[in-house]
Write a structure and sequence with these properties.
By secondary structure, the protein is of the alpha/beta class. Helix content is about 45%, strand content about 20%. The chain folds into 2 domains: about 120 residues, Response regulator (Rossmann fold); about 110 residues, Arc Repressor Mutant, subunit A (Orthogonal Bundle), CATH 1.10.10.10. It has a 5-stranded parallel β-sheet, with helices on both faces. It has a 4-stranded antiparallel β-sheet with strand order 6-7-8-9, covered by helices on one side. Strands 10-12-11 form a 3-stranded antiparallel β-sheet. Helix 1 packs across helix 5, helix 6 crosses helix 8 and helix 7 crosses helix 8. The longest helix has 20 residues. Bound molecules: calcium ion. One of its GO terms (biological process) is regulation of DNA-templated transcription. GO terms for molecular function: phosphorelay response regulator activity; transcription cis-regulatory region binding. It comes from Candidatus Sulfomarinibacter kjeldsenii.
């Protein structure tokens, strides 16, 4: 697989066992026995995935997760937890963890989950369809052309990039700061209101009624999400 994995787990024997099995699966593994060490390693270089225990001696695994996401590190995370409470599960997934396993688990199961996440990530990176279609909206990704009911729509480069990010992940909620990172990049001197004004201009161009957008919807207090064709009509009308 040739993937780099960081295992943050304070039980040395378990960490070693996980390391051994992931190495057998062809991964390169780095182990951190504390949250602080894990964060330091994650700051130093990029990993393809992290296996993160929630009960660490120095800090809560959820805080490790929160800190990574705050630094806009979106490395996939598989959470290990001895607490089977629903709250932890939801919190972990809300913080952007990709999956979780409840202790005790079989290491074989862990390797299978890790492989599944890595496959999903690889598929997303490769999956660049030539054209995206949503009802009467068509995006030709090769020619960077957008049309509504067959009529061409003129978009600026940023408006187009925004639209394509949304359209590739229908239904997914993006915060303004995520969109800034995705479309404008880390270094550029831009602000979250830049996102709002681009969204407004994009809506004016592709929506029949920009005040009741069909494609680019507002998620109040969070950000935006693109129309998901698999949603039921009841969900859609919300
Ligand atoms: Ca632990």
């Amino acid at each position: 697989m040739d993937k780099e994995i960081l295992v943050i787990e304070d039980e040395p024997q378990l960490a070693q066992l996980v390391e051994m099995h992931l190495c057998d699966a062809g991964c390169r593994v780095d182990v951190a026995l504390t949250g602080t060490d894990g964060l330091a390693k994650a700051n130093k270089r990029r990993f393809d995935l992290m296996v993160l225990d929630l009960m660490l001696p120095d800090m809560d695994g959820l805080d490790v997760c929160r800190e990574l996401r705050m630094k806009r590190d979106y490395t996939p995370i598989l959470i290990l937890t001895a607490r089977s409470g629903e709250v932890d599960r939801v919190l972990g997934l809300e913080l952007g963890a990709d999956d979780y396993l409840t202790k005790p688990f079989s290491v074989r199961e862990l390797v299978a989950r890790v492989k599944a996440i890595l496959r999903r990530v690889d598929r997303m990176a490769e999956d660049k369809p030539e054209s995206l279609n949503f009802e009467d909206l068509t995006i030709d990704c090769e020619k960077r052309r957008v049309s509504i009911k067959g009529d061409g729509v003129r978009l600026t480069a940023k408006e187009y990039d925004l639209l394509v990010h949304f359209a590739r992940n229908p239904g997914r909620v993006y915060t303004r700061s995520q969109l800034l990172d995705l479309v404008w990049g880390y270094g550029e001197d831009t602000y979250e209101h830049t996102v709002n004004s681009h969204i407004n201009r994009l809506r004016a161009k592709i929506e029949d009624d920009p005040s009741e957008p069909r494609f680019v919807r507002t998620v109040w207090g969070v950000g935006y999400r693109f129309f998901d064709p698999s949603e039921s009509d009841a969900q859609r009308s919300k």
